[in-house]
Design brief:
Number of domains: 1
Order of helices and strands: HEEHEEEEEEEEEH
CATH topology: conserved putative lor/sdh protein from methanococcus maripaludis s2 fold
CATH class: Mainly Beta
Strand content: 35-45%
Radius of gyration: 22 Å
Number of strands: 11
CATH architecture: Beta Barrel
Strand order of the largest sheet: 1-2-8-7-6
Structural class: alpha+beta
Helix content: 10-25%
Distance between the termini: 54 Å
Length: 142
Protein backbone atom coordinates (compact mmCIF):
# COMPACT_ATOMS: atom_id res chain seq x y z
CA UNK A 1 0.00 0.00 0.00
CA UNK A 2 1.46 3.42 -0.90
CA UNK A 3 2.37 5.73 2.01
CA UNK A 4 -0.35 8.27 1.16
CA UNK A 5 -3.02 5.55 1.19
CA UNK A 6 -1.75 4.23 4.52
CA UNK A 7 -1.88 7.73 6.07
CA UNK A 8 -5.41 8.22 4.75
CA UNK A 9 -6.49 4.85 6.13
CA UNK A 10 -5.09 5.72 9.57
CA UNK A 11 -6.82 9.13 9.51
CA UNK A 12 -10.14 7.65 8.44
CA UNK A 13 -9.98 5.11 11.24
CA UNK A 14 -8.92 7.58 13.94
CA UNK A 15 -10.95 10.69 13.01
CA UNK A 16 -14.40 9.31 13.74
CA UNK A 17 -13.23 8.29 17.19
CA UNK A 18 -11.80 11.76 17.78
CA UNK A 19 -15.00 13.40 16.59
CA UNK A 20 -17.14 11.55 19.10
CA UNK A 21 -17.47 13.71 22.23
CA UNK A 22 -17.30 11.76 25.42
CA UNK A 23 -20.30 12.09 27.67
CA UNK A 24 -19.46 13.71 30.98
CA UNK A 25 -22.17 13.92 33.57
CA UNK A 26 -22.14 17.04 35.72
CA UNK A 27 -24.13 16.95 38.91
CA UNK A 28 -25.66 20.05 40.48
CA UNK A 29 -22.88 20.12 43.08
CA UNK A 30 -20.30 20.23 40.27
CA UNK A 31 -22.00 23.04 38.34
CA UNK A 32 -19.43 25.46 36.94
CA UNK A 33 -21.32 28.44 38.37
CA UNK A 34 -24.18 29.18 40.71
CA UNK A 35 -25.83 32.57 40.53
CA UNK A 36 -27.82 33.93 43.47
CA UNK A 37 -29.59 37.25 42.78
CA UNK A 38 -30.10 39.71 45.63
CA UNK A 39 -33.82 40.55 45.47
CA UNK A 40 -33.23 44.08 46.76
CA UNK A 41 -30.24 45.18 44.66
CA UNK A 42 -30.64 42.85 41.67
CA UNK A 43 -26.89 42.20 41.83
CA UNK A 44 -25.88 38.57 41.81
CA UNK A 45 -23.40 36.64 43.88
CA UNK A 46 -21.61 34.24 41.50
CA UNK A 47 -19.84 31.20 42.91
CA UNK A 48 -17.54 29.38 40.50
CA UNK A 49 -16.14 25.89 40.74
CA UNK A 50 -12.36 25.69 40.79
CA UNK A 51 -12.55 23.98 37.42
CA UNK A 52 -14.47 26.95 35.98
CA UNK A 53 -11.92 29.41 37.39
CA UNK A 54 -9.10 27.40 35.81
CA UNK A 55 -10.91 27.06 32.49
CA UNK A 56 -11.62 30.80 32.31
CA UNK A 57 -8.04 31.56 33.37
CA UNK A 58 -9.63 34.09 35.71
CA UNK A 59 -7.20 36.62 37.17
CA UNK A 60 -7.47 39.41 39.73
CA UNK A 61 -5.54 42.49 40.79
CA UNK A 62 -6.08 44.75 43.79
CA UNK A 63 -7.57 48.21 44.01
CA UNK A 64 -4.93 50.77 44.96
CA UNK A 65 -5.07 54.32 46.27
CA UNK A 66 -4.65 56.87 43.50
CA UNK A 67 -1.51 59.01 43.68
CA UNK A 68 -1.98 61.88 46.07
CA UNK A 69 -4.92 60.09 47.71
CA UNK A 70 -7.31 61.42 45.06
CA UNK A 71 -9.55 58.36 44.77
CA UNK A 72 -8.97 54.79 43.67
CA UNK A 73 -6.76 53.24 41.02
CA UNK A 74 -7.94 50.14 39.15
CA UNK A 75 -6.66 48.23 36.11
CA UNK A 76 -8.61 49.22 32.99
CA UNK A 77 -9.06 45.51 32.19
CA UNK A 78 -11.32 45.22 35.26
CA UNK A 79 -13.81 47.80 33.99
CA UNK A 80 -17.12 46.78 32.39
CA UNK A 81 -19.84 48.95 30.86
CA UNK A 82 -23.49 47.89 30.99
CA UNK A 83 -26.12 48.66 28.35
CA UNK A 84 -26.90 52.01 30.02
CA UNK A 85 -23.21 53.03 30.08
CA UNK A 86 -22.76 52.50 33.83
CA UNK A 87 -19.35 51.26 34.93
CA UNK A 88 -18.76 48.17 37.05
CA UNK A 89 -16.11 45.76 38.25
CA UNK A 90 -16.38 42.27 39.70
CA UNK A 91 -14.85 41.96 43.13
CA UNK A 92 -13.56 38.69 44.57
CA UNK A 93 -15.67 38.85 47.74
CA UNK A 94 -14.65 35.42 49.08
CA UNK A 95 -12.70 32.49 47.67
CA UNK A 96 -14.44 31.52 44.37
CA UNK A 97 -17.21 34.14 44.97
CA UNK A 98 -17.61 37.22 42.74
CA UNK A 99 -19.96 40.20 42.96
CA UNK A 100 -20.50 43.15 40.65
CA UNK A 101 -19.81 46.55 42.20
CA UNK A 102 -20.39 50.02 40.75
CA UNK A 103 -17.44 52.29 39.96
CA UNK A 104 -17.54 56.05 39.40
CA UNK A 105 -14.84 56.70 36.81
CA UNK A 106 -13.09 60.07 36.78
CA UNK A 107 -10.27 59.28 34.35
CA UNK A 108 -8.96 56.49 32.11
CA UNK A 109 -5.31 56.81 31.19
CA UNK A 110 -2.44 54.46 30.31
CA UNK A 111 -4.32 51.26 31.12
CA UNK A 112 -5.52 52.49 34.51
CA UNK A 113 -8.81 53.84 35.81
CA UNK A 114 -9.00 56.54 38.43
CA UNK A 115 -12.32 56.39 40.29
CA UNK A 116 -13.98 58.57 42.89
CA UNK A 117 -16.07 55.65 44.17
CA UNK A 118 -15.79 51.88 43.97
CA UNK A 119 -14.34 48.94 45.87
CA UNK A 120 -12.14 49.68 48.87
CA UNK A 121 -8.36 49.83 48.53
CA UNK A 122 -6.96 46.29 48.69
CA UNK A 123 -10.09 44.64 47.26
CA UNK A 124 -9.33 42.06 44.55
CA UNK A 125 -11.03 42.88 41.23
CA UNK A 126 -11.33 40.54 38.26
CA UNK A 127 -9.08 41.57 35.37
CA UNK A 128 -9.45 38.50 33.14
CA UNK A 129 -12.86 36.80 32.63
CA UNK A 130 -15.01 39.69 33.95
CA UNK A 131 -17.08 39.60 30.75
CA UNK A 132 -17.83 35.91 31.36
CA UNK A 133 -19.04 36.71 34.89
CA UNK A 134 -21.23 39.48 33.46
CA UNK A 135 -22.68 36.97 31.00
CA UNK A 136 -23.31 34.43 33.76
CA UNK A 137 -25.09 37.04 35.85
CA UNK A 138 -27.43 38.11 33.05
CA UNK A 139 -27.96 34.80 31.24
CA UNK A 140 -31.55 34.38 30.10
CA UNK A 141 -33.62 31.32 29.39
CA UNK A 142 -34.01 28.21 31.49
Amino acid sequence: MPVAAAVCAVLLISLPACAQPSAVAVSASEAPATVEKNATTGIARITLSQRAIDRLELQTDTVKAAPGGAGLLLPYTALLYDAQGKTWVYINAEPRVYERQAVTVTKVEAGAVTASAGPAVGTPVVTVAAAELFGAEFVTGK
